[in-house]
Amino acid sequence: MYKSRWSIRFWAVILCLFYTSASAQSENTLNISTMREIVSDASQPNPPWGGPANGPVAQKDKFVAVVAEDLRNGGILGVAQGVAEAAKLLDWKLKIFDAGGTGKGRHEAVQKAQSEALDGLILIGADAEALRTQLEPIAGRHIPIVGWHVGPVAGVMKNSPVSVNVSTDPLEVARITAMAAVIQSDQQAGVVIFTDSNFEIAISKSDAMAEVIKACHTCALLEIRDVAISQSHKEMEAVTQELLAKYGRRWTYALAINDIYFDYMMPELIKAEIDTDELRLLSAGDGSSVAFQRILTNSYQVGTVAEPLTLHGWQLADELNRLLAGEPADGYVIPVHLVTPDNVHLDGGSDFIFDPDNGYRDIYRGLWEH
Question: Is the pLDDT of residue 12 over 90?
């Protein structure tokens, strides 16, 4: 797994956050200083390429099914578009099945996909463990399966029908998000965290955010609110109204496991005439185009840990190509990148995406065409 210099400091500060002693006050100062460095490093533009430098040539003329959790979600759509872009170069035929964000839709999509004469399967945003009983027969037919955001751990997956989970490290993503809130608020954040208990990865992220906020003794974790992503368009209006009435000015930061919650929170904040400095929004994924627009226009949102969605689509294609060639998955994990008002114009931000300017397309093209 790729390790950047800041990730070493990242895990060091996590240990410090939960270490108590008689000199707690001086340690807290050290922690905040280290957290500032971590957040600053994660905010640097043009993160360098640290991924694979070699691999098999393109395994052409393959039929690949893509099961997308919900194409209304900007992150999932962006990854699917990246897969489609890479598949053209690999000369693959793709068929995309949209699960629509429901359990029934998810199982139906996999059922339809496995009825095809597949060479490979790509899951985007669906929980691999929840689909284990359906995926195991596919893997049993020696059809390789790769996924994006399909489990709580990034990289090569063990004891799973899915070979690799393409993602940034979800715990690093979550903790960086919470650290940013602590630092921006001068350690005074009043926080509500939004999560979705339908997904193991979402719970892991919200728990990690909560740990950082709890470790800030002058911050307040007001509530962790469970709202299904698939129902956020229906529920967030009432939830936002309820939370504003319940906490008032104590609520100063909203943290979420996905930007989509803020899409439906925004209208209620405007109606309630909440100033953009009174309530700030930070997301632990995925860097949707709407999130970029909010950050660019100073509309409540002050950060998102953006996934390089198109790059991840290419990475999924490369991982599947390796498996189709009979080679093991690479398992590269891309470092966390925090998008803020200071760097939002860079690395594709003016086009409302995080697309690192590190030449990854040419790198993958070189691998597949050598």
Answer: no
Confidence of residue 7 (pLDDT cuts 50, 70, 90): low
Tell me what pLDDT residue 5 has: 43
Place of tokens 């602590």: 182
pLDDT at site 138: 96
Contact 189, 328 (CB under 8 A): no
In the beta sheet, which residues pair with residue 155? 165
In whole angstroms, what is the distance from residue 100 CA to residue 198 CA? 14
269's CB contacts (< 8 A; 6+ apart) are 240, 279, 300
Question: pLDDT tens-digit profile of 201-253?
Answer: 899 999 999 999 999 999 999 999 999 999 999 999 999 999 999 999 999 99
Q: What is the pLDDT of residue 165?
A: 97
Cα separation, 280 vs 178, in Å, equals: 12
Q: How far apart are CA 280 and CA 277, in angstroms?
A: 7
Q: Is the backbone peptide bond immediately before 286 cis, with ω within 30 degrees of 0?
A: yes
Distances (CA, A) of 61 to 87, 92, 118, 178, 369: 10, 5, 11, 45, 15
Rg (CA), the chain: 20
187 contact partners, CB below 8 Å, separation of at least 6: 32, 216, 218, 219
CB atoms within 10 A of CB 271: 12
What is the rounded CA–CA span in Å between residue 254 and residue 266?
A: 11
| CA–CA distance, 90 with 59 (Å, rounded to integer) | 7
Q: Tell me the whole-structure pTM to 2 decimals.
A: 0.81
For the ranges 28-42, 57-71, 123-137, 311-325, the lowest mean pLDDT is seen at: 28-42
Structure token digits, residue 262? 């803020």
Given a cut of 60, whether residue 14 has pLDDT beyond it is no
Containing 98, the helix (H) or strand (E) segment is strand 93-98
In the 8-state DSSP scheme, what is residue 5?
H
pLDDT at residue 21 is higher than 90? no
Q: Are 154 and 178 in contact (CB under 8 A)?
A: no
Helices (H), the chain: 5-17, 24-42, 74-90, 103-114, 132-140, 170-184, 200-215, 232-247, 260-271, 289-296, 309-324, 360-369
